[in-house]
Amino acid sequence: MDEASIEKYLSETFADLQSVTKEGTTFFFYGPDRMFPFATIVTRDNEYDRASQLDRPSVFRLNIGVSKATFATLFGATSEKGVPGKEYDYTVLDQLMPHPVYGHQSWMVVLNPTVGTFQSVLPLLAEAYSRSVRKHTPNSFSR
């Protein structure tokens, strides 16, 4: 998979999808207010995050914001310092892992997912999108 294929999937799958690209990051939002993304694609390092070494040729990272329950099921409980007791090599390609900076906020990542790995994250993208829709829908009971 590449960034363009993932962007195409997102735009064809999720209604009212908005995206903004800034400084090597494409942010995907539900609705026009563009307040909080549910997914991002990052193509280069920045001053806050160099853990994945995205400045390598053709390396990108798909980030997905899931619920705390889903995150805990995948990786265990988190604290402000990440996932206690576990070490991750954030440079490894095609492996699901907590976000190197925002894992404590239930964000997960995968660098250069293969088609098979991307298929496995489709339910996670759907969850992230649904959570975003609920946050932006008046009278939603499932926040």
Please give the structural blueprint.
Blueprint: H1 3-13, E1 17-22, E2 25-30, E3 39-42, E4 61-65, H2 68-75, E5 97-98, E6 107-111, H3 115-136
Antiparallel strand pairs: 1-2, 2-3, 3-4, 4-6, 5-6
Report on this model:
The chain is an alpha+beta fold and 143 residues long. The protein has a single domain (3-136), classed as Aspartate Aminotransferase, domain 1, CATH 3.90.1150. Helix content is 29%, strand content 20%. The protein has three helices and six strands. The protein has helices at residues 3-13, 68-75, 115-136; strands at residues 17-22, 25-30, 39-42, 61-65, 97-98, 107-111. Strands 1-2-3-4-6-5 form a six-stranded antiparallel sheet. A hairpin with an 8-residue loop joins β2 (25-30) and β3 (39-42). The longest helix is centred in the C-terminal third of the chain and has 22 residues, at 115-136. The chain is globular and about 40 Å long.
